[in-house]
Automatic annotation (TrEMBL):
Stretch forming the signal peptide: none
Protein name: DNA alkylation response protein
Organism (species): Roseibium aggregatum
Family: Belongs to the acyl-CoA dehydrogenase family.
Transmembrane segments: none
Source organism phylogeny: Bacteria, Pseudomonadati, Pseudomonadota, Alphaproteobacteria, Hyphomicrobiales
Length: 559
């Protein structure tokens, strides 16, 4: 048997195997990245509407360019590959209660703080502050979602603390800076701070009234908290909003990590949660040993006080999940544009094209719907219609977007085949992270029940929302709104129908939001397949009358 020489595939004359047999790699997509995540997302740009004027657009595109670099994207990999580590005691045996992070995590935190993603809720005087911040948050979430948890909590905590500026002025001034400082130091030595939260306990879960942690008033205007929290998010934050019981009932407290004299507060971390995903973000279990807490809000009304955090937190859940959908499908489209199979690019294979187009509709709808909610939140203080939209649609939108993310992310992973399933690529990480926002700040049933509560407390909100849907969708929207009205009556009578109502509200709201910002053909494809189509369990069911390739190319222009 003749041995082939390099450059002599016939094998004539003997020799060694050709170099390409062992060294050449071809028909693999180049690494994802190296383009502007903002400039290549027409739905995101359109969804920000008038908020994105020429001045803001330049800043936004710069942020998108940075987020799209392979170097920044790689920080997301490193921050998750090197998990945080809990150090309960130092080498001398003293309690340390410290969590060590990889430098990539701190780099991501620093960039997000410098971009102001942690404090926009305190910048109400700036027009469209929430919408502009949401655009950057959406881009940042495509890089890495774990570090976004403390960013979200810090932003939401500002909504609570700003109600008492006289009491928490020092904290608010540090929250508004763009300085990230990971050191454990007293407040007066920090240029900037982050804030976490601790609500749920082993026995209570979602039922916050079942907490057992207690707070005893001291003689210095503070309280001493004893008890535990089962999920204590981002334990290296500088302070935490915590629920504990007084004689008046569940009460909210701000619990610093470090006391003014430099001593660690009585927070004893037991372990870090071994989570499915979200690995870069440390979630912990903690015990309070007479930890010092500052009263926030009215004693006995801690749950009502904490509710100030709910809207901004849930909005970020929806934004983050929509961004994960975009991140996963962008990688699938990128792979399919470069991979060749059966003599043609994968993206040109009709069945694959239709699957990608079908997924792209949900990503576009999730983006449009999330930003409709953000714009309403930006105007709710001065516009009652937007306030009504926020009341009813916040749990609705969180429900649908966050629950849609895991199946879409899986389908996108499948587009990459085996490459999508191995850790060398980042699809596996995105897939593991996909379920968390559907669980955080209220799972699906909690969201459906909150929709029903909104209907009961503010029945006029449904009329306002349906009026918007009808106006946006025209005669075709009226039938959908009639169905929603009937579903609302059924759900109020029988809460078991809550999910049916919530999903119908979300889908119709998504169609109305899309109608304002995308070409008619894309909106028609969503309406036909989601509002008027048959029951769907997987992607790829789009009617052939829609131009799938044109749809993909418009929603995912090449970088």
């Amino acid at each position: 048997m003749a041995i082939q020489e390099p450059g002599n595939p016939s094998g004539e004359g003997g020799g060694s195997l050709p170099e390409f047999a062992t060294h050449d790699v071809f028909n693999q997509a180049p690494d994802y990245g190296g383009f502007n995540l903002a400039a290549t997302d027409p739905v995101l740009i359109a969804a920000q509407g008038e908020a994105l004027d020429e001045t803001a657009k330049g800043d936004f595109l710069t942020h998108g360019a940075v987020c799209g670099t392979r170097e920044i994207l790689d920080l997301g990999r490193l921050a998750n590959e090197h998990k945080p580590a809990l150090i309960t005691h130092d080498k001398h045996g003293r309690r340390a209660d410290r969590v060590d992070f990889h430098p990539a995590y701190h780099a991501l935190m620093r960039r997000s703080v410098e971009a102001g993603l942690h404090c926009a809720v305190l910048e109400d005087e700036k027009p469209w502050a929430q919408t502009l911040r949401a655009g950057k948050y959406f881009l940042t979430s495509q890089v890495e979602t774990g570090h976004c948890c403390p960013i979200t909590m810090t932003n939401a905590a500002g909504a609570v603390l700003k109600r008492q500026p006289d009491r928490f002025g020092d904290w608010l001034s540090k929250l508004k800076t763009r300085d990230y400082d990971a050191r454990l130091l007293p407040l007066d030595q920090k240029p900037g701070v982050t804030i976490g939260m601790g609500m749920t306990e082993k026995q209570g879960g979602t039922d916050l009234r079942a907490i057992t942690s207690s707070a005893e008033a001291g003689n210095d205007g503070t309280h001493r908290i004893t008890g535990h929290k089962w999920f204590f998010s981002a334990p290296m934050c500088d302070a935490f909003l915590v629920l504990a019981k007084t004689s008046a009932g569940p009460t909210c407290f701000l619990v610093p990590r470090v006391l003014p004299d430099g001593r660690l507060n009585g927070l004893h971390f037991q372990r870090l949660k071994n989570k499915l995903g979200n690995h870069s973000n440390a979630s912990s279990e903690v015990e309070f040993h007479r930890a010092t807490g500052l009263l926030v809000g009215e004693e006995g009304r801690g749950i009502a006080t904490i509710l100030e955090m709910v809207v901004p937190t849930r909005i970020d859940c929806a934004l983050g999940s929509a961004a994960q959908m975009r991140a996963s499908l962008s990688r699938a489209v990128h792979h399919c544009r470069h991979r060749e199979v059966f003599g043609a690019k994968l993206i040109g294979q009709p069945l694959m094209t239709r699957v990608l187009a079908d997924m792209a509709l949900d990503v576009a709808a999730a983006t449009a719907l999330a930003f409709r909610l953000v714009r309403a939140a930006d105007r709710m203080a001065t516009n009652e219609r937007d306030a009504a939209y926020v009341r009813l649609m916040t749990p609705t939108i969180k429900y649908w977007i966050c629950k849609s993310t895991p199946p879409l992310t899986y389908e996108a992973m499948e587009c990459l085949g085996g490459n999508g399933y191995v850790e060398d690529f980042d699809m596996a990480r995105i897939y593991r992270d996909a379920p968390v926002n559907a669980i955080w700040e209220g799972s699906g049933n909690v969201m459906a029940l909150d929709v029903l509560r909104a209907l009961q407390k503010s029945p006029e909100a449904l009329e306002v929302v349906l009026s918007e849907f009808t106006e946006a969708l025209g005669s075709g929207g009226k039938s959908s709104c009639d169905v929603i009205a009937a579903a609302a009556r059924a759900a109020v009578e029988d809460p078991a129908n809550g999910r049916i109502l919530t999903e119908q509200l979300a889908l119709t709201g998504a169609a109305a939001a899309l109608k304002q910002i995308v070409p008619q053909g894309i909106c028609d494809a969503f309406i036909e397949s989601r509002l008027a189509g048959q029951w769907r369990a997987t992607y790829g069911m789009l009617s052939p009358r829609h131009n799938a390739r044109a749809l993909v190319d418009w929603l995912y222009p090449e970088g």
